[in-house]
Amino acid sequence: MLLTSLVSDRLSPATLPAYTRPVPRIILESVPPDQGIYIPKIVSKPLKKGFGFKFGIFAGIHGDEEAGILATQQLIRWASEKPEELGDFELHFFPVCNPTGRNLGTRHNQSDLDLNREFWYGSLEPEVMYLESELRRERYDGIISLHSDTDSDGCYGFVSGALLSEQLLKPALEAADAHLPRNSEHLIDGFLAKDGIIKEGYLGILSAPPEQEVKPLEIVFETPGLAPMHRQVAATVDAVKAILARYRLLQAYAPNI
What we know:
single chain; 28% helix; zinc
């Protein structure tokens, strides 16, 4: 069984400036409690109650990929300090999806498994079971997974799910160009690619439930893992912001496309 504990930081409304939402809720999930594995979940609610595009942002599924974790921390701060910039989004941040791997400094978890090959195959790994339960329960409009690749010289990404996914990865890579080069190879990570975009992918990666009827957009954003960390973080933060901005724009023109 999964045990959920909720930690809320509260401020008096009188102390909050205009347009400031409450501090994002921090939810610590135990997976399960006797294993001592805690996956944090931070929820940033939209400014208008009951309205918002729901996105899940996942990082640290590989324990040795620190850039996505640090970028997610910056995005959480942004959601708290600049709510007017994303008032129509409900963002669910999962900054450390593989806490034992991060503690060990390894790609795999404590069971020596690559968690990003375990999804939707009946895995008994507690991290995967918890994340699958969240993906099923929340039914996200968009799923963004953050990674870094030490074999790549530039940024790139995978797209799947909704047709909009490719249209959102393009501006994300353009935004990242300000910090890091793009991987323009025709073959990246064993897959055919064009302008840093791959339309195939590995089996078993973190993704929407197979039975979800309305497919969300799904984007995996990768930075070059040997690049300076601060550049990887900046590229990732700007890429995620670009995805959200373009999604809002496209929804304004063609809702539910």
